[in-house]
Amino acid sequence: MPTIQQQAARNLTKLRETRPLIHNITNFVVMNFTANILLAAGASPVMAHAENEVEEMVGFARALVLNIGTLTDDWVDAMVKAGKKATSLGVPIILDPVGAGATALRTNAAKRILAETKVSVVRGNASEILALAGAQTNTKGVDAADSVGQATDQAIRLATELGVPVAITGPQDLITDGKRVIRVNNGHALMSSITGTGCGATAIIGAFSGVDPDPVSAAATALAYYGLAGQRAAADANGPGSFMIRFLDALYNLPPEELERDARISE
Amino acid sequence: MPTIQQQAARNLTKLRETRPLIHNITNFVVMNFTANILLAAGASPVMAHAENEVEEMVGFARALVLNIGTLTDDWVDAMVKAGKKATSLGVPIILDPVGAGATALRTNAAKRILAETKVSVVRGNASEILALAGAQTNTKGVDAADSVGQATDQAIRLATELGVPVAITGPQDLITDGKRVIRVNNGHALMSSITGTGCGATAIIGAFSGVDPDPVSAAATALAYYGLAGQRAAADANGPGSFMIRFLDALYNLPPEELERDARISE
Amino acid sequence: MPTIQQQAARNLTKLRETRPLIHNITNFVVMNFTANILLAAGASPVMAHAENEVEEMVGFARALVLNIGTLTDDWVDAMVKAGKKATSLGVPIILDPVGAGATALRTNAAKRILAETKVSVVRGNASEILALAGAQTNTKGVDAADSVGQATDQAIRLATELGVPVAITGPQDLITDGKRVIRVNNGHALMSSITGTGCGATAIIGAFSGVDPDPVSAAATALAYYGLAGQRAAADANGPGSFMIRFLDALYNLPPEELERDARISE
What we know:
The structure is a homotrimer.
Chain A: H1 4-18, E1 21-25, H2 31-41, E2 44-47, H3 54-58, E3 63-67, H4 73-89, E4 93-96, H5 104-116, E5 121-124, H6 126-132, H7 148-162, E6 166-168, E7 173-176, E8 181-184, H8 197-209, H9 215-234, H10 240-253, H11 256-262, E9 265-266
Parallel strand pairs in A: 1-2, 1-3, 3-4, 4-5, 5-6
Antiparallel strand pairs in A: 6-7, 7-8, 8-9
């Protein structure tokens, strides 16, 4: 059995070789950046949100990414419809509950998707995961107002209760299915200086889920790859603009053997 | 009492220290760039446009930015709903009347927002401000077809009639509440070579309005900061692409003491 | 009569001198990048999709670009409405049938626009053009799964049947009105590593159609310009991020005389 670091390298290699189609129903702010992140990593992204085509489109996909960052009721309906079809087809669903806890619409939409579809991984910041767990949160928008450390126990409880693996990203990432608890120590502070890095992390978990059937392994290896690309990009960035560009380059260029060597994943 | 240049430096420092949440209901073209501009400046952006969450979201915000760049009727309804709540809470509203004068839908939407909510600052190009003032304009789209000089008298009249400070951006920016007339001479021609710099200026006025209760001072210092970052970015740019990236870096890196020294604000 | 290479240089010069307004009803993923591509080339982009303003807006435009990349029924209605008005005004319409063949909604929307408006040029990848021609395609999303070579005969047949020039982009581009068959050999593999280069090509055909009344010439010269800018950008790019930025710079900087010299257009 490979180590998790070896699995990371294998997943990245397989992603680039097989170019899985990732169907995204995501928010307006990050659509372009998410598509570019997926392309840079080696996946083939498609964005489609019309209720009368999402079932057809998800039939081609190896993963479905649902992100409620700029939701309205009709978009949530489309997400649930796509999610039900994905569930019936066995296509993994990755949920990004952007801003859960900030407004009732967001918290309820995330809970509805979790209830009506079989989510493979839910990925959020600490505040969003606390909100889904029904715990106290300090969130006022879409940026985290709580720490991963504060949210660890709630994440384990949430994963257990829902039967859905939970990933919290932050300075240190946490992935748990309620039994396994994995931490990823890749990443860089500049990643939070641009919009959409969290959403992009969710999409990359989707891409890795398209090549790795174990959701915990897919999420942990995806976040190590993503964070390591962030470290490479930050090395010679002058600020958030140049970081953003170097980040796409780093996702595209990162060799699997460097990922195996520099992934900081601990269980 | 500080000079306006000192106030500019204070506002930037306070913005970076307090990271005010800025709620944007804006157009699809610039959502990503606007969010990155606000993050680079030090603010915390959120985009939310659903009628059933905008009142809740604006309750967390220190400013509300309304931009009609890709409007439809339901989006205008959401803007008015958010704006009424912001008015009742005392949250400053910054209006960007993108394309006012080009179509009746746009002119009417901007006028409706001005009539039904208490706007703190309206920021447009010369053509848009002329259109709102009911004057002749040459606009055919969303780019300015008239000069700031041509629009000055109308801007003063409009500000007086509405009781709303008006900012016109262009090669020279003008800010007036009908009594004070401030000019800002920062900026660079490359700023008009990329989409969304006008919309970004409006958002930055929102961010500065989140830390400076005087709308005229907030607008003038915001535009000096924004224009100076444009000058810094243009210094070694090879074209609009590299300018865009260096602009985000410059917004992030500009020291308050350089803003105080190089802000070209005259009253 | 000028050579097609000379015509390319003339079109680019005229584009930068006259800055034609290009009205886009396009998808959420590429709106920002498309606007920046058009600005870098010298055109003046506007995005407007509300049913109650598209007729007014297209009245100012020199070309209308319709792109179904993230369509819903109401957006298709707006496209048809704008397209009918453009037809009556003689404004050239450029259609990008993104994802035709992948879902019935997309194939039907593209066919409806072709039936109800007078399209000047339809630009797609090989899979999309095969789908419109009613031929077998391997498409599963929005990326090409078929080659230009495989689609050539069908493109000629489709152009003849519809009376609409067809452009297929890929490693080699093909432009045909059923009689003339033109090939363009500019371009670079990195162009397919970022999202929206196909959509941008369609928009640039729109810009060139705003200054060149011959749709076949407009499309061929536009694609040579666009591909040559891609070559220049790729020369020192480190990956898709830096390529994207250098591409905007190259579109902005490319001298007409270099386009005349390096355009690889053969008939």
